[in-house]
Amino acid sequence: xxxxxxxxxxxxxxxxxxxxxxxxxxxxxxxxxxxxxxxxxxxxxxxxxxxxxxxxxxxxxxxxxxxxxxxxxxxxxxxxxxxxxxxxxxxxxxxxxxxxxxxxxxxxxxxxxxxxxxxxxxxxxxxxxxxxxxxxxxxxxxxxxxxxxx
Length: 150
Hints:
- The protein has a three-stranded antiparallel sheet.
- The chain is mainly alpha-helical.
- The model has no long low-confidence stretch (mean pLDDT 92).
- The protein is globular, with a radius of gyration of 19 Å.
């Protein structure tokens, strides 16, 4: 789409292309890291990582936090349940709510997988010094908030 028109340096389309290309390259790098850590998909990793750090969660909240539709999150949770990595049960306080828990096997897989993935991501971002990391984080939040406002 953007290759049909001349793109000027630092214009909106140019900055978008830089972000898009960098995002794609980082996603490819991340997927390799996740695969090497023992998980096949980013969504499976994200679910397990969320449960590791936040504890049991309702299915719909997991979907919201990792940006999956209700159908996609249900399929992903079922896939993880079949592998014995998570279990589902109805909430004791609200029978409409299905809570997802990590199993012992899920803990055994995600803890070292997350540590390895975090190490890989730290290595990726080591190209930035601490000041650049802070600036990067601030700029990414600023662009994300602006996109949500428009």
